[in-house]
Fold this sequence. Notes:
The complex is a heterodimer of chains A (114) and B (114).
Chain A: E1 4-7, E2 10-14, E3 19-25, E4 30-38, E5 45-51, E6 56-59, E7 62-67, E8 72-77, E9 86-94, E10 103-104, E11 108-113
Parallel strand pairs in A: 2-11
Antiparallel strand pairs in A: 1-3, 3-8, 4-5, 4-9, 6-7, 7-8, 9-10, 9-11
Chain B: E1 4-7, E2 10-13, E3 19-25, E4 31-37, E5 44-51, E6 54-57, E7 64-66, E8 76-78, E9 87-94, E10 104-105, E11 109-113
Parallel strand pairs in B: 2-11
Antiparallel strand pairs in B: 1-3, 3-8, 4-5, 4-9, 5-6, 7-8, 9-10, 9-11
Amino acid sequence: KNQVEQSPQSLIILEGKNCTLQCNYTVSPFSNLRWYKQDTGRGPVSLTIMTFSENTKSNGRYTATLDADTKQSSLHITASQLSDSASYICVVSGENQAGTALIFGKGTTLSVSS
Amino acid sequence: DGGITQSPKYLFRKEGQNVTLSCEQNLNHDAMYWYRQDPGQGLRLIYYSQIVNDFQKGDIAEGYSVSREKKESFPLTVTSAQKNPTAFYLCASSQRLAENYEQYFGPGTRLTVT
Protein backbone atom coordinates (compact mmCIF):
# COMPACT_ATOMS: atom_id res chain seq x y z
CA LYS A 1 0.00 0.00 0.00
CA ASN A 2 1.34 3.44 -0.94
CA GLN A 3 1.95 5.42 2.22
CA VAL A 4 3.75 8.53 3.43
CA GLU A 5 4.77 8.64 7.08
CA GLN A 6 6.04 11.80 8.73
CA SER A 7 7.84 12.24 12.02
CA PRO A 8 7.72 13.68 14.52
CA GLN A 9 4.02 14.44 14.69
CA SER A 10 4.81 17.72 16.44
CA LEU A 11 7.89 19.63 17.45
CA ILE A 12 8.62 22.65 19.63
CA ILE A 13 11.88 24.57 19.21
CA LEU A 14 13.32 27.89 20.30
CA GLU A 15 13.68 30.72 17.83
CA GLY A 16 17.05 30.63 16.11
CA LYS A 17 17.51 26.88 16.47
CA ASN A 18 17.68 24.39 13.60
CA CYS A 19 15.40 21.41 13.16
CA THR A 20 14.90 18.46 10.83
CA LEU A 21 11.61 16.87 9.83
CA GLN A 22 11.42 13.34 8.43
CA CYS A 23 9.37 11.72 5.71
CA ASN A 24 9.39 8.00 4.81
CA TYR A 25 7.39 6.67 1.90
CA THR A 26 6.50 3.38 0.26
CA VAL A 27 5.25 4.78 -3.05
CA SER A 28 6.70 2.84 -5.97
CA PRO A 29 7.60 3.54 -8.67
CA PHE A 30 8.50 7.01 -7.55
CA SER A 31 8.19 10.22 -9.56
CA ASN A 32 8.63 13.18 -7.24
CA LEU A 33 8.46 14.30 -3.64
CA ARG A 34 7.18 17.67 -2.46
CA TRP A 35 7.30 19.55 0.79
CA TYR A 36 4.54 22.03 1.57
CA LYS A 37 4.18 24.56 4.40
CA GLN A 38 0.68 25.13 5.70
CA ASP A 39 -0.05 27.96 8.09
CA THR A 40 -3.02 27.42 10.39
CA GLY A 41 -6.28 27.98 8.53
CA ARG A 42 -4.55 28.53 5.19
CA GLY A 43 -3.83 26.50 2.08
CA PRO A 44 -0.51 24.66 1.65
CA VAL A 45 2.32 26.51 -0.09
CA SER A 46 5.01 24.64 -1.99
CA LEU A 47 8.56 24.71 -0.56
CA THR A 48 10.39 22.23 -2.78
CA ILE A 49 9.75 19.52 -5.34
CA MET A 50 12.39 16.86 -6.04
CA THR A 51 12.56 14.17 -8.69
CA PHE A 52 14.35 10.85 -8.55
CA SER A 53 17.66 12.31 -9.72
CA GLU A 54 17.80 15.12 -7.16
CA ASN A 55 19.10 14.45 -3.65
CA THR A 56 19.03 17.96 -2.24
CA LYS A 57 17.17 21.17 -2.91
CA SER A 58 17.13 24.48 -1.05
CA ASN A 59 14.62 27.27 -0.74
CA GLY A 60 16.07 29.96 1.49
CA ARG A 61 16.41 28.55 5.00
CA TYR A 62 14.66 25.34 3.95
CA THR A 63 16.74 22.45 2.62
CA ALA A 64 15.14 19.19 1.53
CA THR A 65 17.07 15.98 0.98
CA LEU A 66 15.96 12.83 -0.77
CA ASP A 67 17.33 9.30 -0.63
CA ALA A 68 15.37 7.37 -3.25
CA ASP A 69 17.13 4.13 -2.33
CA THR A 70 15.92 4.15 1.27
CA LYS A 71 12.73 6.05 0.37
CA GLN A 72 13.43 8.77 2.88
CA SER A 73 13.34 12.56 2.76
CA SER A 74 14.09 15.23 5.29
CA LEU A 75 13.35 18.93 5.54
CA HIS A 76 15.94 20.94 7.43
CA ILE A 77 15.07 24.40 8.70
CA THR A 78 17.98 26.64 9.58
CA ALA A 79 17.88 29.50 12.11
CA SER A 80 14.17 29.11 12.76
CA GLN A 81 11.90 32.12 12.99
CA LEU A 82 8.52 32.58 14.65
CA SER A 83 6.96 32.64 11.19
CA ASP A 84 8.15 29.07 10.61
CA SER A 85 5.43 27.89 12.99
CA ALA A 86 3.20 25.83 10.71
CA SER A 87 2.41 22.33 9.55
CA TYR A 88 4.87 20.82 7.08
CA ILE A 89 3.42 18.26 4.70
CA CYS A 90 5.34 15.70 2.66
CA VAL A 91 3.64 14.63 -0.58
CA VAL A 92 4.78 11.83 -2.90
CA SER A 93 3.77 11.15 -6.48
CA GLY A 94 4.14 7.85 -8.28
CA GLU A 95 5.65 7.51 -11.73
CA ASN A 96 3.21 7.79 -14.62
CA GLN A 97 0.42 8.64 -12.23
CA ALA A 98 -1.94 11.53 -12.70
CA GLY A 99 -1.85 14.48 -10.37
CA THR A 100 -4.78 12.83 -8.68
CA ALA A 101 -2.51 10.12 -7.29
CA LEU A 102 -0.60 12.29 -4.84
CA ILE A 103 -0.08 10.62 -1.47
CA PHE A 104 -0.18 13.16 1.36
CA GLY A 105 1.47 12.71 4.72
CA LYS A 106 -0.35 13.82 7.85
CA GLY A 107 2.16 16.58 8.46
CA THR A 108 4.50 17.68 11.23
CA THR A 109 3.33 20.59 13.33
CA LEU A 110 6.22 22.88 14.16
CA SER A 111 5.99 25.50 16.90
CA VAL A 112 8.76 28.05 17.20
CA SER A 113 8.82 29.93 20.47
CA SER A 114 10.73 33.03 21.54
CA ASP B 1 -2.21 31.80 -2.64
CA GLY B 2 -1.12 31.39 -6.23
CA GLY B 3 -4.04 33.04 -7.98
CA ILE B 4 -6.68 30.76 -6.54
CA THR B 5 -9.54 32.22 -4.54
CA GLN B 6 -12.02 30.38 -2.39
CA SER B 7 -15.06 31.84 -0.79
CA PRO B 8 -16.29 32.16 1.78
CA LYS B 9 -13.50 31.57 4.29
CA TYR B 10 -15.96 30.36 6.92
CA LEU B 11 -19.35 28.78 6.25
CA PHE B 12 -21.98 27.61 8.69
CA ARG B 13 -24.95 25.47 7.74
CA LYS B 14 -27.68 23.49 9.38
CA GLU B 15 -27.72 19.75 8.91
CA GLY B 16 -29.79 18.71 5.90
CA GLN B 17 -28.94 21.76 3.79
CA ASN B 18 -26.87 21.67 0.64
CA VAL B 19 -24.05 24.21 0.44
CA THR B 20 -21.81 25.30 -2.44
CA LEU B 21 -18.17 26.28 -2.03
CA SER B 22 -16.63 28.55 -4.62
CA CYS B 23 -13.22 28.11 -6.27
CA GLU B 24 -11.83 30.42 -8.94
CA GLN B 25 -8.36 30.46 -10.53
CA ASN B 26 -6.69 32.95 -12.85
CA LEU B 27 -3.64 30.81 -13.62
CA ASN B 28 -5.05 29.44 -16.89
CA HIS B 29 -4.65 25.93 -15.49
CA ASP B 30 -6.46 23.03 -17.11
CA ALA B 31 -6.69 20.78 -14.04
CA MET B 32 -8.51 21.58 -10.82
CA TYR B 33 -9.03 19.58 -7.63
CA TRP B 34 -11.02 19.55 -4.44
CA TYR B 35 -9.53 18.15 -1.25
CA ARG B 36 -10.84 17.67 2.23
CA GLN B 37 -8.63 18.09 5.29
CA ASP B 38 -9.55 16.73 8.72
CA PRO B 39 -7.49 17.11 11.92
CA GLY B 40 -4.65 14.60 12.10
CA GLN B 41 -5.22 13.31 8.57
CA GLY B 42 -3.60 13.86 5.23
CA LEU B 43 -5.49 15.64 2.45
CA ARG B 44 -8.02 13.44 0.68
CA LEU B 45 -9.17 13.95 -2.91
CA ILE B 46 -12.89 14.54 -3.43
CA TYR B 47 -13.21 15.39 -7.14
CA TYR B 48 -10.95 16.54 -9.92
CA SER B 49 -11.34 18.00 -13.38
CA GLN B 50 -8.86 17.60 -16.19
CA ILE B 51 -10.57 20.06 -18.52
CA VAL B 52 -13.75 22.08 -18.96
CA ASN B 53 -16.96 20.03 -18.91
CA ASP B 54 -15.13 17.01 -17.54
CA PHE B 55 -14.75 15.85 -13.95
CA GLN B 56 -14.06 12.59 -12.15
CA LYS B 57 -14.61 11.20 -8.68
CA GLY B 58 -11.70 11.09 -6.29
CA ASP B 59 -11.26 8.87 -3.25
CA ILE B 60 -14.13 10.28 -1.17
CA ALA B 61 -16.73 11.63 -3.64
CA GLU B 62 -19.86 10.33 -1.89
CA GLY B 63 -22.12 13.17 -0.80
CA TYR B 64 -20.40 15.75 -3.00
CA SER B 65 -20.99 17.11 -6.49
CA VAL B 66 -19.07 19.47 -8.79
CA SER B 67 -19.35 21.24 -12.11
CA ARG B 68 -16.76 22.66 -14.53
CA GLU B 69 -18.59 24.94 -16.92
CA LYS B 70 -15.74 27.42 -17.15
CA LYS B 71 -11.99 26.88 -17.09
CA GLU B 72 -11.58 29.31 -14.20
CA SER B 73 -14.29 27.91 -11.94
CA PHE B 74 -14.79 24.59 -10.13
CA PRO B 75 -17.52 24.88 -7.48
CA LEU B 76 -18.11 22.09 -4.97
CA THR B 77 -21.54 21.30 -3.54
CA VAL B 78 -21.69 19.51 -0.23
CA THR B 79 -25.03 17.74 -0.18
CA SER B 80 -27.13 16.56 2.74
CA ALA B 81 -26.01 13.03 1.86
CA GLN B 82 -22.51 13.73 3.13
CA LYS B 83 -22.47 12.18 6.61
CA ASN B 84 -19.62 14.21 8.12
CA PRO B 85 -19.43 17.48 6.18
CA THR B 86 -17.68 19.58 8.82
CA ALA B 87 -14.11 19.98 7.56
CA PHE B 88 -11.59 22.28 5.93
CA TYR B 89 -11.98 22.24 2.14
CA LEU B 90 -9.11 23.06 -0.18
CA CYS B 91 -9.25 23.76 -3.90
CA ALA B 92 -6.13 23.36 -6.03
CA SER B 93 -5.11 23.69 -9.65
CA SER B 94 -2.26 22.60 -11.88
CA GLN B 95 -1.28 23.32 -15.45
CA ARG B 96 -2.01 19.74 -16.46
CA LEU B 97 -3.18 16.57 -14.74
CA ALA B 98 0.19 14.76 -14.95
CA GLU B 99 2.09 13.95 -11.77
CA ASN B 100 5.01 16.28 -12.43
CA TYR B 101 3.00 19.50 -12.48
CA GLU B 102 2.95 21.65 -9.38
CA GLN B 103 -0.39 21.97 -7.59
CA TYR B 104 -1.28 25.40 -6.26
CA PHE B 105 -3.73 25.61 -3.40
CA GLY B 106 -6.35 28.16 -2.48
CA PRO B 107 -6.77 29.56 1.04
CA GLY B 108 -9.48 27.07 1.96
CA THR B 109 -13.04 27.18 3.26
CA ARG B 110 -13.87 25.95 6.73
CA LEU B 111 -17.36 24.44 6.72
CA THR B 112 -19.21 23.81 9.95
CA VAL B 113 -22.49 21.92 9.88
CA THR B 114 -24.59 21.70 13.04
